[in-house]
Amino acid sequence: MLLENKKVAIVGGGMAGLTLARLLQMKNTDVKVYERDMNRDVRVQGSTLDLHEGSGLEAMKRAGLIDEFYAYHRPIASKMRIVDQALQIKFDDHNSGKTISEDRPEIDRAPLRDILLNALKPDTVVWDSHFQSMEKQSKGWLLHFKNGTGIYADLVIAADGAKSKVRPFLSAEKPVYSGITLIEGNIYDAEKNAPKLFEFTKGGKVMAFGNEQFIGYGTKGDGSIMFVASFKAPENSVTQSGIDFKNKAQVFAWFKETYASWSEEWHEFFTNDDVHFIPRPQYYFPLNQTWETQDNLTMIGDAAHCMPPFAGEGANVAMQDAFELAECLAGTKFRNMKTAISHFEKQMIKRGAEATQDTLENSEIMHSKTALEQMLAFFSH
Length: 381
What we know:
Number of strands: 17
Organism: Pedobacter heparinus (strain ATCC 13125 / DSM 2366 / CIP 104194 / JCM 7457 / NBRC 12017 / NCIMB 9290 / NRRL B-14731 / HIM 762-3)
Subcellular location: Cytoplasm
Order of helices and strands: EHEEHHEEEHEEEEEEHHEEEHHHEEHHHH
EC number: 1.14.13.-
Function: An FAD-requiring monooxygenase active on some tetracycline antibiotic derivatives, which leads to their inactivation. Hydroxylates carbon 11a of tetracycline and some analogs.
Protein name: Flavin-dependent monooxygenase
CATH class of the largest domain: Alpha Beta
CATH architecture of the largest domain: 3-Layer(bba) Sandwich
């Protein structure tokens, strides 16, 4: 086995990194995950995930965790309403009479992470390990973390997201701005803090289109809401605006100006007592990206192929990366590490590019002048 007597370091404890760690441990690999969060109790942000056949669901099957997944997935989260700027319902799964589709079952990120964490051997995840730098040592790498610790690994796998600090050791390719910026909002105890919009979801999700702008949101099992307001904008418009996104009054003033044609019902997101905002310009890596394969370093997930969230592909492609890399590294098909990693990277880059292309096309539709009509036609069929 290629990984026999080798130490593997996965940098980043998101879905891709944890899935890969689980799959490698099933092959008796010596693997550690180095995660910047202080501990596993840090609140997990982000939208509910829908896992797809052949990628996210396949990863859970290969990890032997599909029963645990279905024990915690949320069928109601698949129900959707499509509305216009005035919150007028144009399409409603709740009144369609159709049973809830399980083609893409949904689960909140926190329970999914817990399932993966609980499947790992004790102390697999090394918390409070914020990657800073690394240098080559022997045939591997010496990694340094912000807390002052350092470790040696024969193989390093970057799973540390779109702003990966490990990726530059492999590729100098820079991400490309997509033309879309979104503002993410998180509201805790949403039934109290945004009661009307909370009730409006009926436990599912809402997608709203108008004026080449989008608002999407859904409730989570912990009673919170995550919403995004996305729009076409120059790349640095948010940073140049001078808005302090910790100042709710400033963000609300921005929303009323930018989304002036939207009804006041949406203001509830911005005027409650417990909302937190994050500006997120959306980037992707070039579809024709490439790099020289190394025998002791590779990357998966957003570190390799970040993309906007408008097709629901990011986490699924990342989890597919995990099981395909595990198969290459822990199988018997390849004669050496470099050959195994090269095979994985060629397939991964191709899949990532296809998912990114689909995402960019979907993003263009969702922010077009006819977005509402196009999305209604799509979901009606």
